[in-house]
Write a structure and sequence with these properties.
- The structure is a homodimer of 348-residue chains.
- The termini of chain A are far apart.
- Helix content of chain A is 41%, strand content 15%.
- Chain A has 3 domains: 44 residues, 434 Repressor (Amino-terminal Domain) (Orthogonal Bundle), CATH 1.10.260.40; 131 residues, Rossmann fold, CATH 3.40.50; 131 residues, Response regulator (Rossmann fold).
- About 1% of the residues of chain A have low confidence.
- In chain A, helix 5 packs across helix 12 and helix 6 packs parallel to helix 7.
- In chain A, the strands form 3 sheets. Chain A has a 6-stranded parallel β-sheet, sandwiched between helices. A 4-stranded parallel β-sheet of chain A has the order 7-6-8-9, with helices on both faces.
- In chain A, strand 6, helix 9 and strand 7 form a beta-alpha-beta unit.
- Chain A is α/β, with parallel strands linked by helices and 348 residues long.
- The first copy, chain A, contains 12 helices and 12 strands.
- The structure holds a DNA duplex (16 and 16 nucleotides).
Chain lengths: 348, 348
DNA sequence: CTGAAAGCGCTAACAA
DNA sequence: TTGTTAGCGCTTTCAG
């Protein structure tokens, strides 16, 4: 005898399954609730019946009563940076595997997430993950009231990342990375260094800048020249032009992310005719896929996106049961040397 | 007297507002339901009270009863192509503005969306938008049963896009675009043309290939050489190598998207030392932001992402009220000539 | 272990 | 125009 899908009503409910299996609705509910007590054979019967009828628990009803939805809110800022695209894709996959849904919203401008975030919170989301988005106090406050834990990705609350407060964060080791870049550039015998910064409010930028500048100071170098590229291609092109037009043109530029470094390469090469890697060194941060393309061969500091995403998912899961188990995680990366920076002079 | 937010209970419901405003719960509900009949002053009073109490309707409860959630399911395939990233960001913004939520899921491999899609459908989503994802018959069937309309982006159901069936689609004018590219390449006096294809099942690839090949045939040219790049960078690099190693090396390559064209440029230039734009012409499709970068200056056919997304949103809205108002929309683009293709010989 | 019953927060007839 | 009433589909005490 073949068990076929029966011609079910448009929407199958616990009732239908209960009747068909000759049990109570509660039994059906319990069959779909992992921890609940139900005899094995009954559970089996119910699952089979449900299956035959094409029943699936309605997550809306479930969320309504449980006060929790299995949905994770994910806010993205600017997806122009491939690093965040990669992260988003990883995050999406991993959350799906953890049986969590993703509710996506854009928060293009810093703090511009405000209007829709309140709406998202109403869905009783389990957590809010912010990619490349800053935190406003109003947002923090709203989340606190709604008891929705926040996980920042690639950002910290305060630039100086003190003890975990009531938001979590997962970041790369920006200071160490920037110091590694600085050391590498100094190894190439560069004398006039420059830094192209991201946005001012970004903790990530602050840390990368501090790491870079501090290392130079420790080695007895003057502070680098500084221009702002706001983490985007166009502004970084303009910033590079300003740097390269100076009488004291820098001989090495560290950009706070790869997108800006690619812009710097483009300008140096195509507008100033410079041989990047010989006449000038350029380094970025993130190690996006494009950095490895032969036409760029950008020296960069790689961020372990996969690992960082794993930590985010782990945190999200943990926060689901213990809402205040906040952590501040720092994931180490590694320097990837390619052709855009002059190799270190080997000691004789 | 200042109206302050009162120390509200953790979750404010219609009841609380009703009591505070001295009206019934239904009145409160109506105040938040646009079309319902309620006296203006009562509505005003209720809104004010709700506001003071910090009340917001619970979308979960609302969706449960209405059988519709204001959520749009969005499935993304491979985000390696910036065209889809751009689209996703636009889509996200526009849907937010239309007061619709986005539930994101990944469908990395063709037809790999299957497991989680059933789960998403349970949320009684208003529509399913598929970016760069093919449609399997099982998926179609499941959506039909759940009465969830499907909108395909940049894909059609059957490669030959007959009359609209029970899925909608919004696509670029691939045939025309590919013909324009072909005409442009022939104008540059190229004789041995090649095509680097995307994936076989993609209607987009089929249309671009057909447009290209047909035009060549019409002009009395032999069919182009053909290699598969599967729409991705690495495979396209390999495909380009195979083409350029042939004794009858092509003098012009049309790639089914920009990502592959960038790969082709990279290989031609860095592995074969070719002067792209003089010794060989390369053209892509989509006109992603990178195509305009000076280091590439890729000739491409621009797809109007913003307009296509607007159409998607319009369709989604229409389908919300009339679930079978399906359409098949074709948005025209335009040729963008840059440096990677030899300019047409001007008639003397 | 199991069923009955009471809601989660809201909407939508149905009367008034 | 308004309030009353009955659920949407599910979970979860509370008895048994």
């Amino acid at each position: 005898m073949i068990t076929e899908r029966e011609p079910a009503p448009p929407t199958v409910t616990v009732h239908d399954v209960a009747r068909a299996a000759g049990v109570s609705q509660s039994a059906v509910s319990r069959a779909f609730t992992p921890g609940s007590s139900l005899s094995a054979d009954k559970r089996e019967l119910i699952i089979a019946t449900a299956d035959r009828l094409g029943y699936r628990p309605n997550p809306l009803a479930r969320s309504l009563i449980r006060g929790r939805s299995n949905i994770i809110g994910v806010g993205v800022g600017n997806l122009a940076n491939p690093f965040f695209v990669q992260t988003l894709q990883l995050l999406c996959d991993r959350l799906e595997k953890a049986n969590l849904r993703v509710m996506l919203f854009s928060a293009a401008s810093e703090g511009g997430a405000e209007p829709s975030i309140a709406e998202i919170l109403q869905y009783r989301i389990d957590a809010l993950v912010l990619l490349s988005v800053g935190l406003t106090s109003r947002l923090t406050e709203e989340c606190r009231r709604a008891k929705v834990p926040i996980v920042l990705y690639n950002r910290t609350t305060s630039p100086l990342a003190g003890a975990p407060q009531d938001v979590s964060c997962v970041v790369g080791d920006n200071r160490t990375g920037a110091r590694a870049i600085a050391a590498h550039l100094l190894g190439g015998q560069h004398k006039r260094l420059a830094f192209i910064a991201g946005t001012a409010e970004s903790s990530t930028n602050a840390q990368r800048e501090a790491g870079f500048t501090d290392y130079l100071a420790e080695q007895g170098f003057a502070p680098p020249l500084r221009e702002s590229g706001h983490f985007n291609f166009e502004d970084a092109m303009a910033a590079t032009r300003r740097l390269l037009l100076r009488p004291d043109r820098p001989d090495a530029i560290f950009c706070a992310n790869d997108t800006m470094a690619l812009a710097a390469i483009t300008v140096a090469r195509h507008e100033f005719g410079l041989d990047v890697g010989r006449e000038i060194s350029i380094a970025g941060y993130d190690d996006v896929p494009m950095a490895a393309w032969p036409c760029f061969a950008l020296t960069s500091y790689s961020q372990p996106a996969a690992q960082m995403v794993s930590e985010v998912v782990r945190l999200v899961q943990a926060l689901r049961t213990v809402p205040d188990a906040h952590e501040a995680l720092v994931c180490p990366g590694n320097l990837v040397v390619r052709g855009t920076t002059r190799p270190p002079r080997v000691a004789p």
